[in-house]
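Below is how a single chain appears once it has passed through the pipeline. First comes the sequence as given, then the structure the pipeline wrote out for it. We keep one example in the README because the format questions we get most often are answered faster by looking than by reading.
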Amino acid sequence: MKISAMGYSVRLKNISTDDADRIALLANDPDIANNIAAPGKFPYPYTRGDALAFIESARMAYLEGEGIHMCITLNDHITTVGVIGIKHIDLDNKKGEIGYWLGKEFWGKGYAKEAIMLMTGFAFSRLKLNKIYANVLKFNQRSISLLIKLGFKKDAELRANIRYGDKFVDELIYSILSSEYQEKARIDVEE
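Resulting structure:
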C-alpha cells in the first residue's frame, strides 16, 4: 500500500525486509533513541537485526489488526527518511496511537508534519478511527510543538511515568479527534 497527497514532499509505503538496511542506518542515532522512548525501548546502537525484528513485529501487528507501520519516503519512491505507524488500534473504541521518527539529517524539513497528516488522514478516513493519540516524553519539545501545530490537544500529563536511567520523567498524551481534524489534503491510497 502507498499513501500520498498532491503537493506533499513525502509518501508512505509498506515496510518490507528490503527496508531493513536503510531503517538500521537511519535509526542508529542516540538522539532518536533518547527522544522517542525510555532507555532500552528503542535500541542504540540500532542494527540490521533490530530493523528485521521491528519489521516482523510490524507485520504481525498488521495481520492481527493491531497496527500499521509504513516507511516515510521522499516522492522519488526510493529514499526512505523515517518510519510512521498507528499501533494499539482499538476498533471497539475507534482509537489508535501514532508514533514516528525521522533520520536526523531529515529533521526540520517538514517531512514529519506531512507524514503525520497523511497517516492521520488515513486513520480517520480508511480505518474509521475517532481518535489518534501520541505519547510523548515531556522533554521532547520538537515533537510536542509539531503535534500542537497539527491540532493535537494535550489530554494528560503522567507525572514521573517513565523510568529514564536513574530518574523518572513525565509523559504527555496528545490527541486529535476525527471531528477536529482539518483535512489539509486529499489523500490517495494505492492498495
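The first strand starts at residue 2 and ends at 5.

See the next section for the split statistics.
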